Hints:
Helices cover 36% and strands 19% of the residues. The protein is an alpha/beta fold. The strands form 4 sheets. The chain has a 7-stranded mixed sheet with strand order 8-7-13-14-15-12-16. The chain has a 5-stranded parallel sheet with strand order 10-2-1-11-17. A 3-stranded antiparallel sheet has the order 5-9-6.
Amino acid sequence: xxxxxxxxxxxxxxxxSGLVIGEQLAKAGWKCVVVDRRSHLxxxxxxxxxxxxxxxxxxxxxxxxxxxxxxVDHLSQFTDWHPVDYKxxxxxDDRYWSFxxxxxxxxxxxxxxxxxxxxxxxxxEKRISIENPKNSEEVILSQVGRELYERFFEGYTIxxxxxxxxxxxxxxxxxxxxRTNRDDRYLREExxxxxxxxxxxxxxxxxxxxxxxxxxxxxxxxxxRARWKHKHLVFxxxxxxxxxxxxxxxxxxxxRFEHESFNSEQLRSRESISGKKGFWQxxxxxNYPAAEVAFTRIVEIKHATGQKTxxxxxxxxxxxxxxxxxxxxYPVPADDAATLYQxxxxxxxxxxxxxxxxxxxxxxxxxxxxVTGMALAEATKLLSHYGSPNTPLI
Length: 394
Ligand code: FAD
Ligand code: UDP
């Protein structure tokens, strides 16, 4: 293979981590190449418009949220925002429920109006006293008791992870807020909004602003490392893959996405269910915790994007075992996985002229704002180490 020109930084993966760090390094004057083995940029946050003109998130819903003004300000250089209060529902026992659990859910359960005080008294009776919850089952039992745990969490979690909540980290189910007032937003973070024209458009702006950052799609890590002589490598793919899985594969959970589109005619028959003209279901996301339903959730992202179109589209998510042919969507939040990851992390820590960042390379259940923060921090570290292109590289 003919070797391309020498560059400064080679970045593997054109998702949030790779593009955010690439933009920073290129802005400082370094010559960077970012590659991705997929045929598009954006990693799992990639979105695109379907044939009917509906903007869809291709790899599951991506609700941007953050408590960090610094991270929001950083991304705001490349996008305007469409504010959204992310609201979802749960569907089980043949009906829709207000979810995450809040006072409305309690009223639906008891079939009459109630108050925060009454709900808190009810919870005080149901809660199982567990001082330091050690797993995802205990974290929910200690907040709401067995009845609500079994209705909303147990089946969903087993489907999603093929593991019992007892065998999963407490932080997993603790992602879901539980409230006794009427706040029914799915997320807790202060800033909740989507990039106004989508994630793909935002990433394109990052590239547009970075003449020294070159993107090559359909190129994998081995090919790229052979092709571009580089001084430093930034790896954002799976860390076990980087090391040829020498300690055995890290566990991942994968998904199969089933996309379906509807025109305005087809949506008309759904109006009694969605409660809204031009929509298929009553919320942007409906969770299906029951074991008998094979998928975990149905997402109709048009509710969140606010896109004005008569058509709509939904995506069903079917959890599946990960095989080397699948995308490793989720690191598994469990002790055995963390122990195995530590062995890879030891290797990564001493790897010369190589940085490991992002959800896959650090095997962390990180949201988009968190990987953005990680990429910015690593860029700062690298720039303080290497200086600017005018100072010689070490
Ligand atoms: P990725 O997006 O995975 O990007 C890594 C890229 O590297 C990929 O494009 C991959 O193709 C490429 N790559 C890997 N290995 C190689 C290789 N050997 N050679 C070449 N290329 C390679 N976060 C939120 O904040 N809000 C949400 O609502 C949300 N919902 C999610 C829903 C789902 C179903 C999933 C799976 C994740 C969700 N996330 C959400 C998390 C979010 O996707 C991640 O935080 C973010 O995309 C991580 O960015 P990344 O660049 O680290 O990794
Ligand atoms: N979860 C659940 N029931 C729900 C929603 C979530 O049991 O209705 C649990 C499940 O284990 C899930 C975890 O909470 O994997 C985190 O949910 P979240 O919606 O944050 O997952 P993500 O969007 O990252 O897939």
